[in-house]
Amino acid sequence: MKEKIAEIVKAISNESVKNTEELERFRIKYLGSKNVIKHLFSELKNVPNESKKEVGQLLNGLKNHAQEQFDVIKIKLENSSSEESVIDTSRPGDQIEVGSRHPLSLVRSEIIEIFDRIGFTVSEGPEIEDDWHNFSALNFPPEHPARDMQDTFFIEKGTNEMALRTHTSSVQVRVMENEKPPIRTISPGRVYRNEAISARAHCFFHQVEGLYIDKDVSFADLKQTLLYFAQEMFGEKAQIRLRPSYFPFTEPSAEVDVSCTICNSKGCNVCKYTGWLEILGCGMVDPNVLESSNIDSKTYSGFAFGMGVERIAQLKYRVNDLRLYSENDIRFLKQFTSGI
Ligand code: PHE
Asked: Fewer Cβ close by (within 10 Å): the C or N end of the chain?
């Protein structure tokens, strides 16, 4: 018995405990519910009576020794791990990533700045619109296909049918209702159309629409304003061409192309080898629209135009998939670090 005790004392001294798992193994072996020392205690009854006292004391000593060793090793381990976690103040800090402005914000700001330089103010309006401001005041006949469920997201609200605005022309109606000419304003904002999402179409996008109303505003003013815009946005060599078109709220109406900035009008796959890229719709404000907002169409005339911010950004940054703008992919967004 005495030999066994001496053996265990030696074994305890020889234990090398390097981490908490090994410490736990030590605990189970010498202090756990089925530990080796307990086992010796159970054998005490077989020790001859005259040695019982001495062996008992040795066993108690062994038990205390095991506990002491355990405590010492535990404290040592705790100290060494806390040494590791001491903060090293001389280490260089982690790099904090700086965010960047969204390409659509950059382009919208640039459009606003370009028109600000020729006196256009910025107007904003609600994204949930009534039929009057989105359609009726803009001379949309009741049966016009743009009112169709396929294009417009309708929202039921009380007795009035409301919809997510399909263009920011609705803001221009609000301006015409509330202000007297001369009016010179642009309305940037998000618009919604019920389209299947693809690389070339989305259910929401951003527009900047412009409106100029005064005495004697002519189509020549419109054309020159748009040429100024194209050259400010795409460079002084940019040219524009107007193609006849139709919008309910303008007469005459036109669609505007800018000379392809990518191939210098030589022909490439972006301009589909035409040398021209479509950028916006425009026209002279229909007299019916002026009258709907109580502006005398005999005294005043005006022009309006509307462009998609995504389209301008696409041409500026060569982004060929509309979905990239709203997917929040950091690899895409990181590319637009410089302010315009
Ligand atoms: N509102 C038209 C659209 O959303 C654009 C436009 C605005 C066209 C003003 C002509 C004049 O497509």
From this structure: C
- In tens, the pLDDT along 288-335 reads 999 999 999 999 999 999 999 999 998 888 888 889 999 999 889 988
Contact status, residue 286 vs residue 249, Cβ threshold 8 Å: yes
pLDDT at 159 over 60: no
Query: What's the 151 CA to ligand 1 centre distance in angstroms?
Result: 15
Reading the block at residue 176, the tokens are: 């015409």
Extents of the domains making up the chain: 2-85, 103-125+174-188+205-333
Domain 103-125+174-188+205-333 has CATH 3.30.930.10: yes
**Ligand 1 centroid to residue 248 C-alpha, Å:** 9
Cis omega before residue 252 (within 30°)? yes
Question: pTM, whole model, 2 decimals?
Answer: 0.72
Cis peptide before 182 (omega within 30 of 0): yes
Pocket probe for ligand 1: among 165, 246, 249, the residue whose CB has the most ligand atoms within 8 Å is 249
pLDDT digits (tens, 9 = 90+) for 253-262: 999 999 998 8
Contact assessment for residue 75 and residue 19, using Cβ atoms and an 8 Å cutoff: no
